[in-house]
């Protein structure tokens, strides 16, 4: 089968199409002919070597972390899926590689894709949808009426996160530039701050929660907008020592990771806020919940551009430039 892969770490490393072996289908696995994959910042962050310390990679590595496609084979123990089912998913990090014609996925990491969506639309959901669902329900425990700040509302994460937050009853503030306002308009956040004209940290006060999608200096200053004893859940900042301990990393790595996130964790401490770094995890069950919402039209996919399989590098470059509106998709077959 064909796959878009990288041979080594490096910012200048380009994806190339190559023939690779078909995936091995275990007893609990489903073999999927991938029709579309989405591009996520983790794709180029991994290529750039940013996950080196916490994730082992074997090269050549097929790129890509989520997909939609059609079931072409099932393992002996599979109970939930059959040939021809249209499915989508985000496989576990040791079995990624969705810029490819086929993938074998444990059935617990799959769900039937919404019947009202195209493969391209469905592929836009798994990684950002699951991350946002987990951030808002498990990490931040968002309740109706909560004032929630989600920066970069027009991005891949932001567009789905705002919709899920509204379903949970939150009042959302976000940031975007002038050219992103049209993307945000249908979702009608309570507050939209043009980050090129105003500093959100001087406008927002007494927030109940932050779902941080920016990291860096934006994360550090964002904690000031929280009321005391609230939390920031970050998917873009650095992991902290607590996360490294829970991941059972060696003490030397725990200390190194603790040092890397110190600026943000200290800012959080000063603001009497809890700092929660997390990596999303695959879940077919939670994806099925998203399917229900998508089929009911309670949330909708937001697609910026669709690239051909041969143009995967251009798709990556487009997302890496940092101004996608919604999701960028690679059409595979
Ligand atoms: N830990 C995890 O499990 C996990 C899971 C998912 C995502 N993530 C991380 O979450 C982050 C966001 O991902 P994403 O897919 O949403 O990225 P994305 O789609 O590439 O984000 C693009 C958006 O960022 C906005 N933006 C750019 N500069 C900005 C600024 N200075 N202030 C506010 N907004 C700005 C852009 O709006 P304009 O065009 O208007 O500038 C654009 O809409 C990434 O770092 C990603 O790695 C982590």
Automatic annotation (TrEMBL):
Xref: CDD domains: MDR_like_2 (cd05289)
InterPro entries named among the record's database cross-references: ADH-like_N, ER, GroES-like_sf, NAD(P)-bd_dom_sf, YIM1/Zinc_Alcohol_DH_Fams
Sample GO molecular function, one term: oxidoreductase activity
Domain Enoyl reductase (ER): 10-330
PANTHER family in the cross-refs: ALCOHOL DEHYDROGENASE RELATED, RETICULON-4-INTERACTING PROTEIN 1, MITOCHONDRIAL
Name of this protein: NADP-dependent oxidoreductase
UniProt organism field: Periweissella cryptocerci
């Amino acid at each position: 089968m064909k796959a878009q892969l990288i041979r080594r770490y490096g910012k200048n490393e380009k994806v190339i199409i190559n023939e690779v072996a078909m995936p091995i289908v275990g007893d609990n696995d489903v073999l999927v002919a991938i029709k579309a994959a989405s591009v996520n910042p983790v794709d180029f962050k991994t290529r750039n070597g940013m996950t080196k310390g916490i994730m082992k990679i074997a090269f050549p590595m097929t790129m890509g972390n989520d997909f939609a496609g059609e079931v072409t084979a099932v393992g002996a123990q599979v109970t939930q899926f059959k040939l021809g089912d249209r499915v989508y998913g985000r496989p576990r990090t040791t079995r990624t590689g969705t810029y490819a014609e086929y993938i074998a996925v444990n059935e617990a990491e799959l769900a039937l894709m919404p019947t009202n969506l195209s493969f391209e639309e469905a592929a836009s959901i798994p990684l950002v949808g699951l991350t946002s669902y987990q951030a808002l329900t498990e990490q931040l425990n968002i309740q109706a009426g909560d004032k929630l700040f989600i920066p970069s509302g027009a991005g891949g994460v932001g567009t789905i996160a705002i919709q899920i937050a509204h379903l949970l009853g939150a009042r959302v503030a976000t940031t975007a530039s002038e050219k992103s306002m049209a993307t945000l308009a249908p979702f009608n956040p309570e507050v939209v701050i043009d980050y090129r004209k105003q500093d959100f940290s001087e406008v927002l006060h007494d927030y109940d929660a932050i779902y941080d999608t920016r990291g860096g200096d934006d994360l550090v200053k964002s904690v000031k907008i929280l009321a005391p004893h609230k939390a920031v859940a970050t998917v873009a900042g650095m992991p902290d020592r607590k996360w490294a301990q829970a991941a059972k990393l060696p003490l030397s790595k725990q200390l190194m990771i603790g040092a890397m996130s110190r600026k943000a964790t200290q800012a959080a401490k000063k603001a009497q806020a809890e700092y929660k770094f997390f990596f999303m995890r695959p879940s077919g069950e939670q994806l099925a919940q998203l399917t229900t919402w998508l089929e009911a039209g309670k949330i909708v996919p937001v697609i910026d551009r669709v690239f051909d399989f041969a143009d995967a590098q251009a798709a990556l470059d487009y997302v890496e430039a940092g101004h996608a509106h919604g999701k960028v998709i690679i059409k595979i077959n």
